[in-house]
């Protein structure tokens, strides 16, 4: 007999109820109690929905007020001492307070979800605090649902914390957790181990064996499901199979059906993708399910559904032909249930005719730009910038007025013309602020954009956008990833009118501002009938047209952002060089169309730029701005001697804190120790859209001041 389950479910709420509850609590408009109550309502609604759809086994503890890795740190008692005195230590770790920087945040594997990086030192004492998973189990039970609590497993938790050597110390609390769940008469627990699909070091592989041999030997415990996802387990599969754990979760969408017979195990077979929005072909899924050799099969999703929106039924603006191909979380749950039924019935289901499209990508090679020194000289003559030029990453604060106005246009309550006038006023304001502050290369501030990817998707053929397809990116922040369903083309210029309007207001250079092809595809749901590379190249050609038009319209500096370049890096090292080669080629295809005197900037965030430095160099941008404020030394060491313009961020924009001029000066001085003064740019870590104008003006004022002080010393 087969059953059905999902590894996790979205938690932001079908109408972003959690986002609103969090932000009103953070603003002091509601209490912690109100927030808890909203959380309970959302969990109850999710369990009710999953049970109503006929799902066999329900997960719990997949809800979080901020992030599941942070929740696991709390579960293990790994709360750094300095946060304990805060009013709300949990959110102090996640977001910081006036006097306290938050913990670092970074990307969850190759997704656009961000987790909080636990801070674990040699002295961190692990003590179990199982309140949250126990409370969720009881809460669900009171509603009539038995559940399988989900917790990040020890190997992934410690690998992401850079503290694998603490394995022995952390296993005690995990054992106590198992015992507590056993006392609660919980049948199964799910330990998430996505780190096992990456290239494991011998130490990590030993850790897998040690951890699951020991937890498997615990006397009183629920059955253990070790859930892997985002790829194949590789050598971790036989290692796990040799331990006493009862269940192994396999991603059979990214990974393949293993040869190994998993005798004595239950396989949670992830045949419904948690990473895309396409319906599952039942014929193919059944073939995979029938290929799995195990004692028992539970039909499942490839990973948590937290990476897809709630419900296709909430969309009324999409083409019916597209809707027929789509499955969001609700629809995916129904698919899992139906596949379990078909498998149990031994039904014969034919394959869909998989449509295989032909890529309409021109393969014509573009001439490379002149060597950097030639370009640099042409640009210096043309732009006439001071040493240590100051700039920003592109976005200025997205005001409530702008958001409300966009909502008004969508609702038909505000005329397009009035909206565009508002955007122009916003640009005038941003330019005025930058001139007053004395910045050197200005931006228009991106007020016309709801999001740096969705905005482009709305103006390109081949993309569909949703009204309510929100997916959590971090904390209360969400995106609506566009859906790529056809060949990408640019029917008309997109940003030119806003950039030229901004340039018309000032004598200083304004940077045109575009999102790069890799990032546009990475933060969209990709089509499933073309290789990703071909789709990225189509987008690159569309962006190249925009770059050409911006140059022709008189913009001398054009930034093409690629913050997701690192994100799409395959998890297995063997696949990385091929990816980096085409990703870099796509970027050059988008940007190599300009004259020498036009300066191309790129921007990447996230602190592990050092891992792909060769690729960043390969982009061949004249100026690269990167995040570095929270990982300063390491990044500076990595980029020392970089041969083109570089702007390591001088302050962290994720926090409302205003950096002092002294602090910025110190960072700049450190940068000048490793990079020649004529190459260094001065800028924040990333865009300013999540900040307020008051914060931005104060911070940038200090940045300009620090740059001036240091210029005097060059
Ligand atoms: N796609 C993407 N991924 C990214 C980033 C990014 O900028 N974009 N940055 C990095 C960090 N991730 C981020 C993800 C989201 C946001 C963010 O600010 N999201 C906004 C939503 C942006 C948006 O789509 N805004 C729309 C809709 C805004 C909205 O909520 N409107 C209200 C109505 C308007 C009102 O009265 O306020 C509603 O629908 O209820 C708009 O401005 O038009 C949010 O969650 O608040 C920031 C960073 C990495 N990944
Ligand atoms: C996540 S990277 C953001 C780049 C974009 N130009 C901005 O300033 O918001
Ligand atoms: Zn950024």
UniProtKB/TrEMBL annotation:
Query: Carries keyword Zinc?
Result: yes
Which biological pathway?
Answer: Amino-acid biosynthesis; L-methionine biosynthesis via de novo pathway; L-methionine from L-homocysteine (MetE route): step 1/1
Q: Which cofactor does it need?
A: Zn(2+)
Location of the Cobalamin-independent methionine synthase MetE N-terminal domain = 4-293
User: Among its keywords, does the record have Transferase?
Assistant: yes
What GO biological process terms are annotated to this protein in UniProt? methionine biosynthetic process; methylation
> EC annotation?
2.1.1.14
Per the Swiss-Prot or TrEMBL record, the active site comprises 654 (proton donor)
Q: Which residues bind L-methionine?
A: 393-395, 446, 561
Residues recorded as binding L-homocysteine, renumbered to this chain, are: 393-395, 561
Going by the entry's taxonomy, the superkingdom of the source organism is recorded as Bacteria
How is its cofactor bound, per UniProt?
Binds 2 Zn(2+) ions per subunit.
What's the stated role of this polypeptide?
Answer: Catalyzes the transfer of a methyl group from 5-methyltetrahydrofolate to homocysteine resulting in methionine formation.
NCBIfam families hit by this protein: PRK05222.1
Family, per the entry? Answer: Belongs to the vitamin-B12 independent methionine synthase family.
Return the protein name.
5-methyltetrahydropteroyltriglutamate--homocysteine S-methyltransferase
Give the originating organism.
Answer: Nonomuraea endophytica
Q: Which lineage?
A: Bacteria, Bacillati, Actinomycetota, Actinomycetes, Streptosporangiales
């Amino acid at each position: 007999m087969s059953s059905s389950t999902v590894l996790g479910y979205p938690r932001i709420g079908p109408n972003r109820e959690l986002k609103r509850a969090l932000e009103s609590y953070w603003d002091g408009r509601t209490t912690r109690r109100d927030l808890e109550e909203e959380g309970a309502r959302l969990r109850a609604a999710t369990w009710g929905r999953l049970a109503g759809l006929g799902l066999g086994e329900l997960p719990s503890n997949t809800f979080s007020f901020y992030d599941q890795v942070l929740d696991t740190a709390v579960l293990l008692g790994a709360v750094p001492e300095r946060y304990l005195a805060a009013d709300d230590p949990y959110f102090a770790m996640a977001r910081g307070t006036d006097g306290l920087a938050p913990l670092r945040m970074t990307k969850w594997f190759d997704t656009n979800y961000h987790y909080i990086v636990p801070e674990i030192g040699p002295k961190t004492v692990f003590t179990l605090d199982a309140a949250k998973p126990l409370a969720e189990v009881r809460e669900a039970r009171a509603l009539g649902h038995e559940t399988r609590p989900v917790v990040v497993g020890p190997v992934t938790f410690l690998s992401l914390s850079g503290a694998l050597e603490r394995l022995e110390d952390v296993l005690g609390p995990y054992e106590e957790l198992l015992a507590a769940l056993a006392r609660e008469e919980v049948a199964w627990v799910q330990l998430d181990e996505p780190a096992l699909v990456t290239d494991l070091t011998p130490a990590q592989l030993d850790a897998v064996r040690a951890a699951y041999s020991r937890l498997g030997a615990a006397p009183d415990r629920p059955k253990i499901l070790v859930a892997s996802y985002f790829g194949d387990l590789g050598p971790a599969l036989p290692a796990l199979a040799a331990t006493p754990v009862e269940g192994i979760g396999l991603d059979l969408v990214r990974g393949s059906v293993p040869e190994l017979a998993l005798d004595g195990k239950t396989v949670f077979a992830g045949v419904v993708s948690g990473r895309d929005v396409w319906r599952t072909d039942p014929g193919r899924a059944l073939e995979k399910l029938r290929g799995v050799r195990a004692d028992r099969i539970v039909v499942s999703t490839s990973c948590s559904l937290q990476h897809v929106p709630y419900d296709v039924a909430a969309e009324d603006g999409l083409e019916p032909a597209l809707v027929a191909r789509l499955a969001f979380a609700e629809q995916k749950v129904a698919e899992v249930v139906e596949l379990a039924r078909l498998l149990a019935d031994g039904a014969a289901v034919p394959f869909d005719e998989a449509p295989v499209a032909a890529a309409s990508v021109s393969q014509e090679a573009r001439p490379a730009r002149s060597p950097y020194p030639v370009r640099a000289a042409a640009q210096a003559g043309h732009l006439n910038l001071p040493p240590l030029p100051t700039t920003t990453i592109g976005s200025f604060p997205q005001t409530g007025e702008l958001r409300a106005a966009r909502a008004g246009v969508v609702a038909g309550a505000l005329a397009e013309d009035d909206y565009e006038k508002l955007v122009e006023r916003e640009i005038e304001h941003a330019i005025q602020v930058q001139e007053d502050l004395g910045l050197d290369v200005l931006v228009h501030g991106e007020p016309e954009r709801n999001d740096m990817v969705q905005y482009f998707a709305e103006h390109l053929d081949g993309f569909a956008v949703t009204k309510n397809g929100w997916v959590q990116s971090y904390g209360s922040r969400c995106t609506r990833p566009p859906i790529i369903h056809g060949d990408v083309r640019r029917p008309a210029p997109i940003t030119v009118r806003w950039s030229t309007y901004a340039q018309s207001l000032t004598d200083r250079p304004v940077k045109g501002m575009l999102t790069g092809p890799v990032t546009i595809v990475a933060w969209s749901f990709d089509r499933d009938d073309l290789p990703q590379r071909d789709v990225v190249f189509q987008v690159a050609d569309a962006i190249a047209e925009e770059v050409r038009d911006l140059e022709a319209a008189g913009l001398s500096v054009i930034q093409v952002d690629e913050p997701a370049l690192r994100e799409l890096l395959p998890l297995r090292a063997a696949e990385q060089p091929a990816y980096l080669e085409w990703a870099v080629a796509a970027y050059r295809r988008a940007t190599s169309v300009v004259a020498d005197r036009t300066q191309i900037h790129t921007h990447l965030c996230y602190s592990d730029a050092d891992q792909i430095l060769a690729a960043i160099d390969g982009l061949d941008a004249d100026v690269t701005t990167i995040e570095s404020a929270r990982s300063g030394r390491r990044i500076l060491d990595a980029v020392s001697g970089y041969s083109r313009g570089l702007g390591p961020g001088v302050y962290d924009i994720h926090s409302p804190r205003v950096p002092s001029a002294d602090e910025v000066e110190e960072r700049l001085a450190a940068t000048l120790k490793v990079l020649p003064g004529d190459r260094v740019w001065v800028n924040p870590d990333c865009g300013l859209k999540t900040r307020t104008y008051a914060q931005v003006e104060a911070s940038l004022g200090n940045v300009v001041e620090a740059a001036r002080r240091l210029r005097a010393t060059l």
